[in-house]
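Researcher: I'm preparing a figure for a lab meeting and need a structural model of a single chain. I don't have an experimental structure, so a prediction will have to do for now. The sequence is pasted below. Please return the structure as tokens so I can convert it later.
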Amino acid sequence: MKPKVTMIAWNQNDNYVVTAVNNHLLKVWNSCTGQLLHDLVGHADEVFVLETHPFDSRIMLSAGHDGNIFIWDITKGTKTKHYFNMIEGQGHGAVFDCKFSPDGQHFACTDSHGHLLILGFGCSRPYENIPDQMFFHTDYRPLIRDSNNYVLDEQTQQAPHLMPPPFLVDVDGNPHPTKYQRLVPGRENCADEHLIPQLGYVATSDGEVVEQVIGQQTLDQDDQVSELSPLESIIRQLQLQQERRNGADQEFASFGPPNWEGTPRRG
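Model: Understood. Here is the structure written out token by token.
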């Protein structure tokens, strides 16, 4: 197998360069002379995450598709800590990204199963009050394309970037309390009544009817206009005026053929 470098990272003070190779080895190099100092052995699959410690020049973190996360002392070429991302009933989860906290006491990782892993020193009590399952209610909603090949949300017929901020729900689509809804950008200062989603019953592909978030109570239209950029505010005001004069049905007809499923597009 021809060796290929999959990832490269400098340490905190730039004295060392660490490279990840597709033969599952990590190599530590002297950045001034180019001399190979250490081969770091431990990974069983390709490594695509190399993260240096924010202030300790000895420490480097590596993670990969084998589910292993290593903390290395690259000056000695030794493992300091090891964590294996085992998921009960599903085998291991490939680790896609890792980042240290600014104080270097914790690091967060994301894996192929949608988990956020937080590891480090201290007590986990602050995290115990956070729901284990946090999804946006729009995460798995289908998209369609209109006659101009623009992407639209199938349910609301809106462009995704023009939709209101989503709600936080669990894996079954049940919305979380309002205190968690304020964690969503764009909902930080909303009144409680704007943080309560509208629930309805939706038929799934296999015919089962489930309760799901199907609509949202959002800010008043005037408040939404004030939060947009000047150009988008003008467009939104024109759209509102058109709706008031002609009604929604006439508006759709004026911007496309009768069978077009979409909203007006800006030029």
